[in-house]
Write a structure and sequence with these properties.
- The complex is a heterotrimer of chains A (about 375), B (about 350) and C (about 180).
- Chain B has twelve helices and no strands.
- Chain B is mainly alpha-helical and about 350 residues long.
- The longest helix of chain B has about 35 residues, at about 10-45.
- The two termini of chain B are about 40 Å apart.
- The N and C termini of chain C lie far apart (about 50 Å).
- Classes of the chains: A alpha+beta (about 375), B mainly alpha (about 350), C alpha+beta (about 180).
- The interface of A and C includes residues 45, 49, 226, 302 and 341 of A.
Chain lengths: ~375, ~350, ~180
């Protein structure tokens, strides 16, 4: 005779300290084991795509900032590159170099938030503050360049809004020298901590084939062992001039594709970004950052899908132009949107307390899920 | 001390009432101090400053917070079980306060010089479990219940390694009265419990590694009893549920808070009494040196509180460094690791003592 | 690495009636147009065929083609009749490293497209979003309901002829 058990539905509501934004997770449980996770999104929907159809092309750029608000430079980057490709504009080399440097600094800042809040979710309060202290230095660099700390509107169609100030190169080099040893500090405090490993290794395993089918990208995909990075496999801008490696999850303390792997890929990516910045900062050519900005942005009729490697994954812009100054359709393929849809598959069969660990390892931002 | 006061006033009742005041006063003052200490310790470890404005470097901050808590509206949800809901915080507080009666602050004053010392403390900490369960159930909140059940499971499981280690120590000291145990560690630092106590001969040296193991096991299990990180799943269940004390506000919440910090000191002082000499000073007494009689109890109090504070500081240090342990891993640590180790420790120490 | 024209040839030889044409006029790249009610089989073929191996769906978006005719009736009201919706699929192969864009066109009055959910699980939420914003019904979708807007919202916002509702749930919208 077997006991009749029922499934219980538990709600991790929209207001919650551990979901990264306003997200509602409906957990279908049997005892402590998760049978299904159903995310409910849309609490932060701000109708980006409808607005974009009413604005002109340059006016859309501040709207793109606000999607993934922790990595605004990269949102700008993807959009302006897409429009430039559609119009066939060639930007000066100086602009390309500065865009890459800003993008990689932004990648470091975004990963610092991801790692810090992941520790916070699991109860380790201190690494969060150490990482945010370092992130402040990056934000100061940004503020000195374009006046904003979080939402920059820095990259325009055909160029940049402000040129870098004369001290920028020196300050960035100081930052790199200061920051390199702190990654070791983070590793001692969190990455190799036995309790942290117990909570993240062998949790939320996603094998490589499933990861590709589910559409995961960025560090989530690389954590599952797939060596795929848009900066190398599908290069855009001038990334093919730099020498850096792609860290891949290898299952060092558990299975390939678990939460620890996704976390560790992000830690290693910080080091690789530092390498790129080091190479680029010495080679910035002279030039004018606004020379290629057209007076009127009016692309020819057509369509383009352009993707960049944002810190959270593959950020894609699908723009359809009908020959006027307003876009006919701007669709944003947000990486967190697809990552969150995968949580139903990844979290099956684990315990309730693991759902928080899995959610943190996917590194989602509700701003770009809901747009 | 009860006798002293009853001689003066000629009434037993007044003596008893006055005799209970010092631990209560100590508890309240200690909590005020400990909350401030925790905020400063956590702040400095996290590269920031903590409270700085209220009083010297924020020392009166806790007082301000308690005043605020006391004047808050006492919100009681209508669907709660009134009796359980209201009694629970006071029960938790009472459990901890009762145990303070047994702590040997000095050799002259103890709240109650009973012979059952540590046994009484262990028994009374059961009140805390009952209080927590009542709080969880009485809140009429699915999540509070979840949190309270986990907390109860955690405290009850970790009482077993605690009891096993205390049994080991009792074998060495031969008495349950905490005052006696402290007196047996008289002398200098070499006579402290962790270095073998005042055992004669070779047994003292043989026992030192096992004392270390016993100390570590006791430290971990009492840390779990006080619901501190890394075992604070019930308390900061903000991962998933809200913890058993969500529905409380105002005075009742302050009671839970008070009880938690008082519990921390209680647990540290048990460690100190067993392993670090209780109120004995490591370097001899100034009072004895100078021939001033009444200085000795003051010094003993000072040493007792200083050692207790040190362990409270270590507990806070751990809280801000380590991440949280998952609930099934918590149970695994207790049942699969701590209990076997404590048991073997007990056996081996027993063997050494027989020889 | 195959160019879109070659992929078109392979598809045409396999599915004569489902694959309609290849549209190479506009920048930036050619698009293959497929019949909306047979897209599921075509998708399966695209993923499993040895030469193609499109195992990754990069993007799936609904588009309002805005090609209806404006009809003015007696009172002078202008409405848009007819017109089509499209759904664009951007596919990519991680093994062979080539890309292709597929488009299906369906009527505005009865927009029905077969789902590609069994082929690429990444499409589940994208299709829900296309349904939410345009009202395109994806046949055989496991869980077709609104994703970004509240469940009781009326209307499909990204359509070109969408007007902001006056009332939602009994409350007047002040804008």
């Amino acid at each position: 005779m077997s006991l009749r058990t029922e499934e219980m539905v538990l709600n991790m509501g929209p207001q919650h300290p551990s979901t990264h934004g306003v997200l509602r997770l409906e957990l279908v449980l049997e005892g402590e084991v998760v049978h299904d996770v159903k995310p409910h999104i849309g609490y932060l929907h701000r109708c980006f795509e409808k607005h974009a159809e009413a604005m002109t092309y340059p006016q859309v750029v501040p709207y793109t900032d606000r999607m993934d608000y922790l990595a605004s430079m990269y949102n700008n980057f993807g959009y302006v590159e897409a429009v430039e490709k559609l119009m066939g504009i060639e930007v000066p080399e100086r602009v390309e170099y500065i865009r890459v440097i800003m993008g990689e600094l932004q990648r470091i800042a975004s990963h610092l938030v991801a790692l810090g809040t992941y520790g916070l979710d699991l109860g380790a309060f201190t690494p969060f503050l150490y990482l945010f202290r370092d992130r402040e230095k990056i934000l100061t660099l940004f503020e000195e360049t374009c006046g904003a700390r979080l939402l920059y509107n820095y990259m325009w169609v055909g160029g940049l809004s402000h040129d870098i100030h004369p001290d920028f190169v020196r300050k960035t080099k100081e930052f790199i020298d200061y920051f390199r040893p702190t990654v070791t500090e983070l590793n001692e405090l969190l990455t190799y901590n036995k309790i942290f490993i117990e909570r993240t290794a062998n949790i939320g395993v996603c094998p490589a084939k499933e990861a590709i089918n589910l559409g995961l990208s960025g560090p989530n995909l690389r954590g599952s062992g797939v060596k795929f990075d848009l900066r190398k496999n599908d290069p855009y801008s001038i990334y093919n001039k730099f020498d850096f490696e792609i860290p891949v999850g290898e299952g060092l303390v558990g299975t390939v594709g678990d939460c620890w792997d996704r976390y560790y890929v992000r830690v290693q990516e910080i080091e690789q970004s530092l390498r790129i910045i080091e190479q680029a900062i010495d080679q910035i050519p002279e030039g004018d950052v606004k020379s290629a900005v057209p007076r009127r942005v009016k692309p020819p009729k057509g369509h383009i899908y352009h993707r960049v490697e944002a810190p959270k994954g593959e950020l894609g812009y699908f723009i359809i132009s009908d020959g006027t100054v307003n876009p006919a359709r701007v669709k944003v393929r947000a990486p967190s949107f697809v990552s969150l849809s995968a949580i139903g598959e990844i979290a099956k069969g684990y315990l309730v307390a693991d759902v928080v660990a899995i959610l943190g390892s996917l590194d989602i931002v509700l701003g770009e899920i809901d747009r | 001390m009860q006798d002293y006061i009853s001689e003066i006033t000629g009434s037993d009742v007044i003596a008893f009432i006055v005799g209970t005041l010092p631990p209560l006063a100590f508890m309240v003052v200690f909590t005020l101090f400990a909350v401030w200490l925790e905020r400063k310790v956590s702040a400095h470890m996290q590269d920031r400053l903590g409270p700085m404005r209220v009083g010297w470097h924020g020392s009166l901050q806790t007082l301000a917070d308690f005043l605020k808590l006391l004047q808050k509206e006492d919100i009681v949800a209508s669907a709660t079980d009134k009796a359980l809901f209201n009694i629970a915080p006071y029960l938790v507080f009472a459990g901890t306060f009762l145990a303070y009666a047994m702590l040997p602050f000095t050799s002259f004053y103890i709240g109650s010089n009973a012979d059952v010392g540590i046994f009484f403390i262990l028994a009374v900490s059961g009140f805390v479990v009952a209080g927590l369960l009542m709080a969880g159930w009485g809140s009429n909140n699915k999540y509070s219940l979840y949190g309270a059940m986990r907390s109860a499971a955690q405290i009850v499981s970790y009482e077993i390694p605690t009891a096993l280690v205390i049994l080991t120590m009792l074998m060495i000291y031969g008495t349950m009265s905490l005052n006696e145990i402290s007196m047996q560690q008289a002398g200098y630092i070499w006579d402290w419990g962790i270095f073998g106590g005042s055992l004669p001969g070779i047994a003292k040296f043989l026992i030192i590694p096992f004392m270390l193991v016993a100390f570590i096991i006791l430290f971990i299990s009492t840390l779990a009893e006080t619901n501190r990180t890394p075992f604070d799943l019930p308390e900061s269940e903000s991962e998933l549920v809200a913890g058993f004390s969500t529905e409380y506000s105002g005075v009742k919440f302050a009671m839970f808070f008070l009880a938690e910090f008082a519990n921390m000191f209680l647990v540290s002082s048990i460690l100190v009494v067993f392993f670090f000499g209780g109120y004995q000073s490591p370097i001899g007494y100034l009072g004895n040196l100078l021939g001033v009689e009444w200085l000795v109890p003051v010094e003993q109090t000072f040493w007792f509180i200083a050692k207790g504070l040190f362990f409270v500081f270590v507990q806070m240090w751990l809280r801000w460094t380590l991440p949280r342990v998952r609930v099934d891993q918590l149970m695994t640590i207790c049942w699969k690791y701590l209990i076997p180790y404590a048991f073997f420790n007990l056996l081996i120490v027993g063997l050494i003592l027989l020889i | 690495m195959k160019t879109p024209e070659e992929i078109f040839e392979i598809l045409k030889s396999e599915f004569q009636d489902a694959v309609i044409e290849i549209d190479s006029e506009l920048p930036v790249e050619p698009i293959i147009i497929v019949d909306p009610l047979k897209i599921s089989k075509v998708a399966q073929f695209l993923r499993d065929n040895e030469e193609l191996q499109f195992d990754s769906l990069m993007n799936l978006s609904g588009v309002d083609d805005n090609n209806g005719e404006k009809v003015t009736d007696e009172e002078g009201n202008v409405t848009v009749q007819g017109g089509t919706f499209s759904v664009y699929y951007h596919l990519h192969s991680t093994t062979i490293d080539h890309k292709v864009t597929i488009r299906v066109i369906t009527d505005k009055d009865k927009p029905e497209v077969e789902t590609v959910d069994p082929v690429w699980k990444a499409s589940t939420w994208h299709e829900r979003e296309a349904y939410d914003m345009y009202g395109i019904i994806f046949l055989n979708h496991p869980d077709l309901r609104r994703i970004l807007l509240p469940d009781d919202w009326e209307g499909y916002p990204l359509r070109k002829d969408y007007e902001n509702p006056e009332y939602y749930d009994g409350m007047k919208i002040p804008y």
